[in-house]
C-alpha cells in the first residue's frame, strides 16, 4: 500500500525484545534502563497474527531485531511461524551474533535466510570499549557460525564513533578484499539514552569513505550508486565483497523509505526518528480480529510522516534505539 506521499510501504522491522546481552556505548546505558516485562511483549502467536495482518496491508519483507532478538527463548519458533506465512518473501535478522554459535543452524533450518551482524571493530582492545560486555572472539565466532549455516550473503553493520573505533573503518573495509561480505557503515543517530555520545561522536559517511579511500584506494559505485535497502554500495578494486554507507543524518533517504517498525511492546512506529506510535498490542488483546489489525496497519501507513527532522535539531526523546528496534 502507498502512503500519502506515494511511497510503497512494504517492509516491517520487528523488535522482539528490548533486552540485550551487550551495552554498546551509543545504544544502551550500562545501568538504569527498565525493560518491558515479559507479559507485555508480544508472544509468538501474537507476532504471527500481526505479520498476517501486515501481509494483507501490503508488507512482504520482515526483519527481526531488537534489543538482541536471539535472547528470545522462542526465537526459532518465531522464525518457523513467520516464514510459513504466505506473502512473506524475505525474513531476515539483525543481531550482534553472540548467540549464533548455538542458534545459527536451527535458525537456518527453521527458514531464516540471512543475518546482518553488528561488529564495530576487529580489534581485541577496541571492540569491548564500544560494544561493552562484548569480545572480539565471540563476535567472530558468531560470524563464522552464520556463514557455516548458510545465512548468507553475510552483511556486517558497523557504527563509526569518533574517538572509539575510527580505525575500524579501514580494518573492516579491508575484509571485503578477501570475503564476499557486505560491510555497512551506519551513521550515528540521536535517540533517548546516550544522546550526548550520539551527537558528539558522530562521523559522516563522507569522512569514513575518505579514510577508506586514503588507505585502500578508490571506491567504485555498484549499480550506479542505487540504494540497496538504505545503503549506497561501493566496491574496492578487485574486492570480493562490497561496502555500504547508510547515511540517515548526512544524506536522508526518507523519500525512498518503505518501512515501519513494531516495538517489543507492540507499538507500530511510523518512522524510526519520530516518537509517534500506534498501540497494536491493546487492539490485539481486546479481542479484535484480523481485519481490525489490517485496518490499523492502513491507518499507520497513512499517518507515516514525510521524513525526519534531524536537520532542524528534532530527534526522538521517548525511547532508546534498543527499545525501538534498530
Ligand atoms: N542487537 C542487534 C544488533 O546490535 O545488531 C540488533 C539491534 S541494534 C539496535 C541494530 C543496529 O542498530 C546495530 O547495527 C547498531 O549498531 C545500530 N545502532 C544502535 N544504536 C544506534 C544509533 N544511535 N545510531 C545508529 N545506529 C545505531
Ligand atoms: Fe545491544 Fe544491538 Fe544495542 Fe549493541 S546495538 S546494545 S548489541 S541492541
Could you explain how this protein is built, in words?
The protein has 326 residues and is an alpha/beta fold. It has a single domain (11-324), classed as TIM Barrel (Alpha-Beta Barrel). The protein is 32% helix and 19% strand. The protein is built from 11 helices and 15 strands. The protein has helices at residues 44-56, 75-83, 100-110, 126-130, 136-148, 168-178, 195-200, 205-216, 280-285, 290-302, 321-324; strands at 11-15, 23-24, 61-65, 90-95, 114-118, 131-132, 155-159, 182-186, 219-221, 227-228, 231-236, 242-246, 259-262, 267-269, 277-279. Strands 1, 3, 4, 5, 7, 8, 9, 10, 11, 12, 13, 14 and 15 form a 13-stranded mixed sheet that branches. A hairpin with a 5-residue loop joins strand 11 and strand 12 (242-246). The longest helix has 13 residues, at 44-56. The model has no long low-confidence stretch (mean pLDDT 93). The structure holds S-adenosylmethionine and iron/sulfur cluster. The site of S-adenosylmethionine has 20 residues, from strand 4, strand 7 and helix 11.
Bound small-molecule species: S-adenosylmethionine, iron/sulfur cluster
Q: Please outline the major beta sheet.
A: 13 strands, mixed
Topology-level CATH name:
TIM Barrel
* Tally of separate helices: 11
Compute the CA-based radius of gyration: 19 Å
Question: Could you name the key traits of this structure?
Answer:
alpha/beta; binds S-adenosylmethionine; TIM Barrel; single chain; 15 strands; 326 residues; globular; 11 helices; 13-stranded mixed β-sheet
Amino acid at each position: 500500500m502507498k502512503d500519502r506521499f506515494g511511497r510503497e510501504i512494504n517492509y516491517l522491522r520487528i523488535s522482539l525484545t528490548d533486552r540485550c546481552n551487550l551495552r554498546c556505548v551509543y545504544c544502551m546505558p550500562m545501568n538504569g534502563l527498565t525493560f518491558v516485562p515479559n507479559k507485555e511483549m508480544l508472544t509468538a502467536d501474537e507476532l504471527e497474527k500481526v505479520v498476517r495482518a501486515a501481509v494483507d496491508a501490503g508488507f512482504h519483507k520482515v526483519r527481526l531485531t531488537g534489543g538482541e532478538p536471539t535472547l528470545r527463548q522462542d526465537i526459532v519458533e518465531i522464525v518457523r511461524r513467520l516464514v510459513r506465512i504466505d506473502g512473506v518473501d524475505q525474513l531476515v535478522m539483525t543481531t550482534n551474533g553472540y548467540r549464533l554459535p548455538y542458534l545459527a543452524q536451527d535458525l537456518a533450518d527453521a527458514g531464516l535466510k540471512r543475518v546482518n551482524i553488528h561488529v564495530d571493530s576487529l580489534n581485541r582492545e577496541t571492540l569491548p570499549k564500544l560494544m561493552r560486555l562484548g569480545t572480539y572472539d565471540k563476535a567472530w565466532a558468531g560470524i563464522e557460525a552464520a556463514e557455516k549455516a548458510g545465512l548468507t550473503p553475510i552483511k556486517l553493520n558497523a557504527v563509526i564513533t569518533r574517538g572509539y573505533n575510527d580505525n575500524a573503518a579501514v580494518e573492516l573495509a579491508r575484509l571485503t578484499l578477501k570475503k564476499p561480505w557486505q560491510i555497512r557503515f551506519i551513521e550515528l543517530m540521536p535517540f533517548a539514552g546516550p544522546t550526548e555520545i550520539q551527537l558528539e561522536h558522530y562521523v559522516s559517511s563522507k569522512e569514513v569513505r575518505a579514510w577508506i579511500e586514503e588507505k585502500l584506494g578508490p571506491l567504485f559505485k555498484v549499480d550506479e550508486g542505487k540504494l540497496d535497502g538504505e545503503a549506497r554500495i561501493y566496491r574496492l578494486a578487485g574486492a570480493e565483497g562490497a561496502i555500504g554507507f547508510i547515511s540517515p543524518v548526512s544524506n536522508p533517504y526518507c523519500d525512498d523509505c518503505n518501512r515501519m517498525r513494531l516495538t517489543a511492546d507492540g507499538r507500530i512506529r511510523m518512522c524510526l526518528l519520530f516518537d509517534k506510535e500506534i498501540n497494536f498490542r491493546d487492539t490485539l488483546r481486546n479481542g479484535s480480529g484480523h481485519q481490525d489489525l489490517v485496518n490499523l496497519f492502513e491507518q499507520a501507513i497513512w499517518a507515516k510522516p514525510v521524513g525526519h527532522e534531524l536537520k532542524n535539531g528534532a530527534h526522538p526523546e521517548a525511547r532508546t534505539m534498543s527499545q525501538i528496534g534498530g
